[in-house]
Amino acid sequence: MTAVVCENLRKRFGDSDAVAGIDFKVEEGDKFAFLGPNGAGKTTTVGILSTLLRPTEGRATVAGFDVVRNPDRVRDRIGLVFQEQVSDGDLTAEENLMLHSVLYGVPRAEARKRMVSLLELMGLADRRHHRVTTLSGGMRRRLEIARCLMHDPRLLFLDEPTAGLDPHARVMVWELLDRLREERGITLFLTTHYLAEAERCDRVAILDRGTLVADGTPQGLEATVGADSIQLRTSDDALAARNARSALGLEVSDHPEGIRIHAANGPELVPRLCSELGVTVDSVSVSRPSLEDVFMHYTGHAFQE
Ligand SMILES: Nc1ncnc2c1ncn2[C@@H]1O[C@H](COP(=O)(O)OP(=O)(O)OP(=O)(O)O)[C@@H](O)[C@H]1O
């Protein structure tokens, strides 16, 4: 089953569209990134999909249920990790997880089993009886994720899951999300304004000013905007450029230090260039288009993280 379907989804606040009629799908088991700069409409979309906001127009289903007509069914099947801490700082890790299970009606014995296994999975087993106020920012974020898994959802929405964390804590959250998906097959729907995080996902939808500008795998999107670029410094750049054009039929442009070759398969081409250009290659570097280039290509302006 498709985990999320949005059809012409729109949300208006006053006289402006926060989400301006977007269409996309998320497949079950995917790690899906909703990428966009501040104010793009990511949180608003997640708000609609998690039944906290009503769309002005259009339709969305989550786990097969319409978010407006069957909000309870949707809520049972999703977990929602907010940017802000929801856990009670004065309660312990265990108490917070158990409280969540009560709110969702999970039988007590089952809840205890899940609590122990989730604290273990999140690397928080030794913090079980510690109050939340005594935990580090990274630990609190992992506890938030554990809390949202207590009712065993199939789909987890995470709004900027690594915002405000230091690099080490970010890596830990990512490793954990990868394990969640691998071990439990949970669909992950993340909003992010970090290009590098979107790069790590199976699929990316890029949102700008309420409009979906592109949607696909990171590699597929990058391939649509241009070729790889190979920078070469050689013993004779003029000869290298001539040979690359005439003998190998490649597109070549000038570069402040040497020459630049544009080709779809940059890394694979390098050995051939070294052996067939008829010059000594002193240095070589290959760069591929990034999601930043994709964003610029589709919106005409730079991405601000
Ligand atoms: N309750 C509201 N009332 C009026 N305008 C709103 C409301 N919520 C959001 N907006 C506006 O809708 C637009 C999209 O906001 P949203 O929070 O969805 O963006 P975002 O992509 O999640 O941004 P961020 O990365 O900063 O969280 C913004 O212009 C915002 O000011």
UniProtKB/TrEMBL annotation:
GO terms for cellular component: plasma membrane. SUPFAM superfamilies: P-loop containing nucleoside triphosphate hydrolases. The keyword Transport applies. Pfam families: ABC_tran (PF00005), DrrA1-3_C (PF13732). GO terms for biological process: daunorubicin transport; doxorubicin transport; response to antibiotic. Its main location: membrane. It is a peripheral membrane protein. Keywords: Antibiotic resistance, ATP-binding, Nucleotide-binding, Transport. NCBIfam families: drrA. This is ABC-2 type transport system ATP-binding protein. It comes from Actinopolyspora righensis.
